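Researcher: Go.
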Amino acid sequence: MRRRRSWSAERHVELNVIPLIDVVFFLLVFYVISTSFTPESAVPIERPQSSTATVSEVPSVQVAVTAEGDVVVGNRTVGAADLPAAVGAELGRVGATRVVLIADRRVPTGTLLAVMDACTAGGAGSVDVAATAGNLQ
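Model: Structure:
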């Protein structure tokens, strides 16, 4: 008794890649949605370095201080008198109690402390200073 083969050499195999493309697309969408993006300051700042700097995932408001002494909250430059109100408004908008202060390394300590005090007066529960991780130079 001879066995018949279930396939023949003339049979064409179809490879349908549409489901594969769908799965890859869904994975891409999942990764894009689940990734949290941390907005960086819109002003150019040369951060100081710290050997103990860590990354924080806690929601916060970013306040930038440029080398010229300009203070930027969100996307707008504010004066010293308006800083507590601007920080309070941004904290309420974001729903956070933490402020990350991104100061240029050339900002005087007195200016940095004045901005930190204004952030605390605006309702910040904690004020952290951003740094670049690396060895001290």
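Model: The domain at 49-133 is CATH 3.30.420 (Nucleotidyltransferase; domain 5).
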